[in-house]
Amino acid sequence: MLRRLSADDPRFKTVTFTAGLNLLVADKTAASSDTDSRNSAGKSSVIELIHFLLGARATTKSLAMNKALRAITFGLDMDWPRFDRPLEVRRSGSRHKTVALSQDVFGLPTDGLFPNTAGVELTVEQWTRAIERDLFGLRGDHPGVSGRTLLSFLARRASSHAFNEPTRTFSQQSASEASTNLAYLLGLDWQLVDGYRELAARKATRTQLQKAVNDPVWGRIVGSTADLRGQITLAEAQVERLRGQVTAFQVVPEYERLKDRADQVSRRIKQLAQDDVIDQHNLEELQAAVTETTDVDVEYLEPAYRELGVVLNDQVRRRFEDVKAFHHSVVRNRRRFLEEEISELTERLAARRAERARLGEDQARLLRELADGGALGALTALQTALGREEAALGALRHRFEAAQTLEASARQITAKSVELQQAVDTDLQERRQQTNEAILLFSQYAQRLYGEGREAYLAIQAGRSSLTITPRIDSDDSRGIASMVIFCFDLTLAVLAHRHGRGPDFLIHDSHLYDGVDERQIAKALTLAAEVTVEEGLQYIVTINTDSLGVAAQRGFDPEPYIRSPRLTDEHETGGLFGFRFKTSTKQGTP
Asked: What is the pTM of this model?
């Protein structure tokens, strides 16, 4: 239960609350036009500050973050489970990341994070966890259910458009998120219902992935199953080939020495072949020279001279014979020299043939040894190549699985949606007691407003994308019936949550709820709230304008016992909640 809203600024008008119905009234003055919402009085600011003190995220548009208010420390005194005295909560815009408490909410036996001393300062996240644990009974992990969202159903904010429809607390809230939190407040299997939120996340992810696949650049990251199947087949063949080579590979000792020896043998064989070509050419020339080296025939000379009438004397003949003998000696010596050269070349050619034959055998042996294995470095390189190809194959398989998942995800999501719908429908059948309690309670409240002949109920069913909860009141086109649907729905949530230990003992409504509502329903709604809060041990805080309160009074509702101080007004500068006027960028107008 909330006790007091205050601030360390003396101009601020402290607001006090009690059990039951609490009316925070803003007086309508002569200066206010008929369409003036009188936000300058600060009615909506009360709800904004309560949210801020109960852990709302501070943004640049938050009321407490306004330049004129940042230095002010606001306070909320409230009852806390198992505490004998009210818990004092303090927070300011200048230090919006922390919350100061007068008592240690974590000093309870269930959790010993902090020493049991007064004046504890928590982060906003820690404070939110304490609210979830002690006000809403949430323990451990509870994905999909948030204390802040639950509070937003029990204290709707006009700035978040929370009065547009009963099952959402802000306009962009997903149905799956809202239904999970509503299921918790109503006592349904919220964990099962949270499957809708997870399914919605999968749908959103698939949509984004599908867009990426359709993109010509990003599509190559995943690809299609048809293309990837072919690439995987080729990659598997390459891996198997390399794996076979690694398995059959033998490391040859002194591989590099054998390789160098094989290179030397190869070079020597090549050199021998070149030398053979030169010697064979020289041999052919020498053999030709031997053939051409013969004695010159000179027998024709003397008959020739005789015919010319020249008779050679004996001295000439002797000199001729000497020359002839010398010539024969030269020819013999030349032939003997050529034959010796030929013999030497022939021997060299034969020796090289023998050496080539020996080197050929040596080369064949070395090549066989090298072919049977390789060096350790070669094996390492082969293993590295195998690892690289295996990694590439693994990446292709992951892409293939992703492509399969993406292509099959639409069917899987549809199947999961049908399966979840059936499971939720079965759970609703098994929880007839909880659903019946909610339906009857809502119907009872609606008939208190519109008469027992009015058909009113909660339609709760398992949908394809969320648990659908639809509050219905048979309409006769009366003014403000949509607002009264929200009133009855919120009152039902608050009562059920408090009855079964799933929520706090307060409900807060802004005056926007009563805009356009028939005066009879305003009177009946306030009367009903006053009675229910007493019966259920609840607190109902509502900000309301004097004109709405006046028509309710004319219909038989007596507001005086429920009006709490202060009475706000926009008549003068100091009449509002803050005691001064300032500019604001929020949608609430000037408080």
From this structure: 0.68
